[in-house]
Amino acid sequence: MITIQDPKELQAVCRAWRAQGLSVALVPTMGYFHAGHLALMDRARPLADRLVVSLFVNPTQFGPGEDLDSYPRDPERDAALAESRGADVLFSPPPGAMYAPDHGTWIEVPDLAKGLCGASRPGHFRGVCTVVAKLFHLAGPDVAVFGEKDWQQLAIIRRMVRDLDFPVRIEAQPIVREADGLALSSRNVRLDEAERAQAPQIRQGLLMLQELASGGERSAARLQAALHEHFDAHLPLGEVDYIAIVDPVTLAPLSEVRKKALAAVAVQMKNARLIDNFLLEV
Ligand code: AMP
After folding, report:
1. Segment (H or E) for 205
2. Domains along the chain with CATH numbers
């Protein structure tokens, strides 16, 4: 594995591969790898001849007052892990190499970004789309793998790729969880003991919604109310940011669960915002 910090060098390396007829897979990350990231790499590895893992804590997707400076980092461990999963390149540019001081071009998918996490993190998905578009232009991947943990992000990237004709296939990786159901996240290290003990209730609550839906409950409002009650009772250390029942593709709020509906939640703990989702099926 080689580590590349210069965007132009990544572009040259990937261009040379393509000229040799080699295909490229890309896994974009912000690092501090856990088993979720590794699952993305394992998924991507057999999909192409070459695997590029990017590690970039993208400043433009953090709002003022968010945790850009304190985002957990461990570049050496990350490099060893990426290499162990068969990455050919670890791309870890310094922020100044990705954004000119007068950078002013942005990609937005406002329709899909206005709700859910976008409502409480204005500008977040604009930063995500812009950096992912830049990574696509640098690596020119045939396929890129994203996690379903960030379902809204995945839906937005798919829409951006469709709308702007990026020649890349997007693959989705199911959520990797702790044994007790908590979705893995780099920010989980910030949970204190009591919060960590309650955090699996997010998953428990989502599973309860599936049971209610399977039992015939179709009303999104009643499902949302049931989840609020569950969190009031079992997750008192968390403050609910949103509980939403939406169309899995358009992310439009649903009033009734028909066939497939995405239940998505965000809960603010003291030092970490936790998100999770579940595809309800009836
Ligand atoms: P991040 O480093 O948190 O920006 O995440 C990089 C990629 O890993 C994104 O596509 C995430 O959706 C994905 N990811 C993060 N956590 C998980 C998880 N627990 N299971 C599956 N994918 C994940």
Report:
1. helix 201-214
2. 2-173 (3.40.50.620), 186-281 (3.30.1300.10)
Query: For 128-154, how does the pLDDT look when each residue is reduced to its tens digit (9 = 90+)?
Result: 999 999 999 999 999 999 999 999 999
> Which residues' Cβ are closer than 6 Å to ligand 1?
29-30, 36-37, 39-40, 146-147, 149-150, 173, 175-176, 183-186
Query: What is the β-pairing status of strands 260-268 and 273-281?
Result: antiparallel
Residue of 196, 201, 184 lying closest to 148 (CA atoms): 184
By DSSP bridging, strand 50-55 and strand 24-29 are parallel
Structure tokens at 151: 């379902």
- What b/e string do you get for 217-230 counting C-beta neighbours within 10 Å, with b at 16 or more? bebbeebbebbeeb
Give yes or no for a contact between 252 and 234, defined as CB atoms under 8 angstroms apart: no
What is the Cβ-side half-sphere exposure of residue 66, based on CA atoms within 13 angstroms?
18
By residue count, the chain amounts to: 282
Per-residue pLDDT tens digits for 158-196: 999 999 999 999 999 999 999 999 999 999 999 999 999
Q: For residue 227, report the distance from its CA to the centre of ligand 1, in Å.
A: 24
Catalytic status, residue 137: no
- Would you state the structure tokens that stand for residue 128, as one six-digit string? 């995500």
Contact 86, 47 (CB under 8 A): no
